[in-house]
Amino acid sequence: MNRRISKMLALALMSLVVMSAYAQKGECSVGSKNYKIEGRISHDTWNKAQSSKVTFTGIPANLEEFKQVRQTLGKEPQGAVALQVMAFEMYRRDRAVGEQALKLNNTTTNFNSTIERLKEMMGKDKFYARPYLAAALLDGAKPANAYTPDWPYCVKIRVNPVNKYQESQFLGGTVIYLQIDSEGWDTNWRGVEVVRPEGEQFYVVSNCPAMYTQCKQIKGTWKELK
């Protein structure tokens, strides 16, 4: 009996060590801003019950900050999704900087399609443009509150419960199908696909039209993200 208890305690301790290591790996600070991944999404085995959230207290101010955040978040599938949201807002603020951030966080094909769409979404047509697109992808933001997200900012993500992971020779890795919980569209769950190409360190977004489709117009005045 004592041996069994000792074995159980040892296993529990090992589990705590692994969880602690993951927590350290999924969290970083850049300047006064904090970024954190909560919950794990498997890199190689589809589990429709898995979900996660990425919280942060500010948008990276420049490309160097984005790269620093990517060193932590970009190693996880859900982290790449959160980085995409941040890059959308960076593009709104500065086209050149945002474009470089998006280039880092996307496959070449998806980068091209995303940029073309963002040019329209961040354009000058007040009836068509959606400068608050990134905010619409954050938890708590909805048209009725002028896309004012909860604090700290949070991107809520789950594994697509229908689409299983799929190997892609073209992309050179396993495509992971995820969904963002958002209230900015008629359908809450916005699909996004990510992949870590063979030999690469970071996940990148390979497909995300649901993220840049025109969201609903706000009611009231939008307050820019921090």
Report on this model:
Helices cover 38% and strands 20% of the residues. Helix 2 packs antiparallel against helix 3 (77-93). Strands 1, 2, 3, 4, 5, 6, 7 and 8 form an eight-stranded antiparallel β-sheet that branches. With 226 residues, the chain is an alpha+beta fold. It has seven helices and eight strands.
Beginning-to-end CA distance, first to last residue:
56 Å
Rounded mean pLDDT score:
91
| Helix segment tally | 7
- N-to-C order of helices and strands: HEEEHHHHHEEEEEH
| Structural classification | alpha+beta
Percentage of helical residues?
25-40%
Report the biggest beta sheet as strand number plus sense, adding barrel if it closes. Answer: 8 strands, antiparallel
Gross morphology:
globular
